[in-house]
Design goal:
heterodimer; A: 136 residues; seven-stranded antiparallel β-sheet; 4 helices; 33% helix; elongated; B: 113 residues; 3 helices
């Protein structure tokens, strides 16, 4: 990763900007039911340990090139992105196949509630971190 | 491959592109079209061009690069269908970019690093 960031530095013009945006595993994603008035949290979704490690490696790579004097960093920011699903079964299928998340949500509502609203539309609300770095 | 064995731009299935934020949404968070207006932009790990094609209407030129040739073919097709003449796509890896020094004013790593 550091090699790629050095290449980015090379192809950037003086004072050019590098945008680094990626999912933020520091915060839990949420499984939410879409209601008529908003969203109801049904559970938490953790990032797999492998991906957590990859995220730490990415953070370290950015820190390295900043430390090496290649970029000046700004304060990282975050936004939340909702991925829509037709129903709870579709959300579960997505989780079972997803490379980044663990395969099962940690439900914060009971099984009866999940069954009752299983046919409602659901979303996964996930944090995305972004940062603009300026070439020095 | 990068130093730790990861491959840029190949770790997430192409299908997930439709599950990511729309390009204009992401660009909006980063500062809006002003960030790329009139500039030469490189989208590194561009996949099927989701972000590059969203940026192209504002930028002077957009180049997308990704190690996956199939995704690059998709991106080229989408650019042609959209009539975007300032967008080009190349197969390539982030560790050895075949672009000149200082070729871009903005480089985007969106869900890539």
């Amino acid at each position: 990763m550091v090699d790629a960031l050095r290449e980015v530095h090379r192809v950037l013009a003086p004072r050019g900007v590098l945008v680094d945006a990626r999912p933020d595993s520091r915060f839990l994603a949420r499984a939410e039911r879409r209601t008529t008035r908003g969203f109801q949290v049904f559970g938490n979704i953790r990032t797999s340990s492998v991906e957590m490690g990859n995220d730490r490696a990415s953070d370290a790579a950015i820190a390295r090139v900043v430390r090496d004097g290649l970029f000046r960093r700004s304060r990282p920011r975050r936004f939340w992105h909702r991925v829509p699903f037709d129903d709870l079964a579709e959300l579960r299928k997505y989780l079972s196949e997803h490379l980044r998340f663990v395969k099962r949500a940690e439900w914060t509502v009971d099984a009866a509630t999940r069954r009752r609203y299983a046919k409602d539309p659901f979303v996964i609300r996930r944090p995305v971190r972004y940062e603009l770095l300026t070439k020095i | 491959m990068s130093g730790d064995g990861r491959v840029f731009g190949k770790r997430v299935p192409a299908l997930s592109s439709r599950l990511r934020p729309a390009a204009e949404v992401e660009l909006g968070y980063w500062g809006g079209p002003a960030l790329v207006r009139g500039k030469r932009v490189l989208d590194l790990g561009c996949g099927d061009g989701r972000l590059a094609l969203g940026v192209a209407p504002f930028a002077k030129e957009v180049t997308g690069t990704d190690p996956d040739a199939e995704l690059i073919a998709d991106a080229r097709l989408r650019a042609r269908d959209a009539g975007l003449r300032n967008a080009r796509f190349d197969v390539g890896a982030g560790q050895s970019l075949r672009y000149a020094d200082g070729a871009f004013e903005v480089v985007i790593l969106s869900w890539t690093l």
